[in-house]
């Protein structure tokens, strides 16, 4: 099972930017899926952005054009660049990965708070 550690959360004003990082304990090239999800209080966890083996990238509708997912294989890390942040982006952001055997793993989460 892959271990995931997220960093980079914090407090930012509306319109600001943050970059989240997710470091994996395995080579990310060996993982079938790596993605970012978020969960706001009282809400269900939702997909923010995901990368699938072969290069496919998907974004949640609410973040398209504002957030960018990327990866650095040398560091076994994926990133989530978040620009033009809004108060409704406030949530705990989780990293998720699926290994070659189909087993999924979650990170511990990092809090992002956007003040109005």
Word description of this protein:
- This protein has no helices and eleven strands.
- It is mainly β.
- The model has no long low-confidence stretch (mean pLDDT 96).
- The strands form two sheets. Strands 2, 4, 5, 6, 9, 10 and 11 form a seven-stranded mixed sheet that branches.
- It is 0% helix and 53% strand.
- Strand 9 and strand 10 (104-106) form a beta hairpin.
- 28% of the residues are buried.
- The N and C termini lie far apart (39 Å).
Distinctive features:
mainly beta; four-stranded antiparallel beta sheet; 11 strands; globular
Low-pLDDT parts are none
Strand proportion, as a percent range, falls in over 45%
For the termini, the CA-CA separation is 39 Å
Nearest-angstrom radius of gyration? Answer: 13 Å
Share in helix? under 10%
**SS-based structural class?**
mainly beta
Report the sheet with the most strands, covering strand number, pairing sense and barrel closure.
Answer: 7 strands, mixed
Gross geometry: globular
Question: How many strand segments?
Answer: 11
Order of helices and strands: EEEEEEEEEEE
Provide the residue-averaged pLDDT. 96
Helix count from the secondary structure assignment: 0
Short synopsis of the structure:
The protein has no helices and 11 strands. The protein is an all-beta fold and 116 residues long.
Which helices and strands, and how do they pair?
Layout: E1 4-7, E2 10-13, E3 18-24, E4 33-39, E5 46-52, E6 56-59, E7 67-72, E8 77-82, E9 91-98, E10 104-106, E11 110-115
Parallel strand pairs: 2-11
Antiparallel strand pairs: 1-3, 3-8, 4-5, 4-9, 5-6, 7-8, 9-10, 9-11
């Amino acid at each position: 099972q892959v271990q995931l550690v997220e960093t980079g959360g914090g407090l930012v004003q509306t319109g600001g930017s943050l970059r989240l990082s997710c470091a994996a304990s395995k080579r990310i090239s060996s993982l079938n899926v790596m993605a970012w999800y978020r969960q706001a209080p009282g809400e269900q966890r939702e997909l923010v952005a995901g990368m699938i083996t072969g290069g496919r990238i998907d974004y949640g509708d609410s973040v398209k054009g504002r957030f960018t997912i990327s990866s650095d294989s040398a560091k076994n890390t994926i990133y989530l660049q978040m620009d033009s942040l809004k108060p409704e982006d406030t949530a705990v952001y989780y990293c998720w990965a699926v290994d070659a055997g189909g087993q999924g793993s979650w990170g511990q989460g990092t809090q992002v708070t956007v003040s109005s």
